[in-house]
Amino acid sequence: MIKGVIFDLDGVIVTTDNYHYLAWESMAKKENIYFDRQINERLRGVSRFESLNIILEKSKKIYSDKEKNKLAEYKNNIYKELIKKLSSEDILPEVLKLLNFLKSKNIKIAIGSSSKNTFEILKSLNILNMFDAVADGNQIKKSKPDPEVFLLASNKLGLEPKECLVIEDAESGIIAGKRGNFKTLAVGSIVNKNIADYYFKDLSDSKIYDIFK
């Protein structure tokens, strides 16, 4: 029986992918590094520093850790300005319906995101108070596909991993969920749909509710 649901943030609750892309693109242009949408896809569910290292694969320059920190900060400052535009209208379809349904069933809900801007985004969307727990990139050392963020979220909920369902749109997140002994539900354009316990195009599919019967 599922007693808790852990949501990834970006791509599940809200889509800020384009904001990430624009911010990384700005950083890459500043450093004269080639960057495109295909490279950006590799950054899904990955921490900021690891994302930077992926982008720097295209650079001929070797960057020191100090220089990398400055680049990551530059990108994040641009990103934080962009997400100020977010509002409750940016919440993906049927998310609020599912959250309210889970609450009506006394199923605990949490966020498990690698983003260090999780709290700011949830506040902008005006849904922070809907979650029983939030685990984000500021609280972990290992990003997905390591299950650390989901294990932290389930611990905050006071539940065992096997009692929780992880909802993710990135393959790295589904792998993290499976490694942590969670049930997993994949949504969106995830390539390998078969690695998850459940797959739906998006959260508007009414069959999702059958999982909780």
Distance between the termini: 9 Å
CATH hierarchy: architecture of the largest domain: 3-Layer(aba) Sandwich
Beta-strand percent range: 5-15%
How confident is the prediction overall: mean pLDDT? Answer: 94
CATH superfamily annotation of the largest domain: HAD superfamily/HAD-like
The count of β-strands is 6
Lay out the secondary structure.
Elements: E1 4-7, H1 17-30, H2 37-41, H3 48-55, H4 65-82, H5 95-104, E2 108-112, H6 118-125, E3 133-135, H7 148-157, E4 164-168, H8 171-179, E5 183-187, E6 198-200
Parallel strand pairs: 1-2, 1-4, 2-3, 4-5, 5-6
Helix pairs in contact: 1-4, 3-4
Could you walk me through the main structural features you see in this protein, from its secondary elements to its overall organization?
The chain is α/β, with parallel strands linked by helices and 213 residues long. It folds into 2 domains: 4-14 and 88-212, HAD superfamily/HAD-like (Rossmann fold, 3-Layer(aba) Sandwich), CATH 3.40.50; 17-85, DNA polymerase, domain 1 (Orthogonal Bundle), CATH 1.10.150. The protein is 38% helix and 12% strand. The chain has helices at residues 17-30, 37-41, 48-55, 65-82, 95-104, 118-125, 148-157, 171-179; strands spanning 4-7, 108-112, 133-135, 164-168, 183-187, 198-200. The protein has a 6-stranded parallel β-sheet. β2, α6 and β3 form a beta-alpha-beta unit. The protein starts with a strand and ends in a 13-residue tail after the last strand.
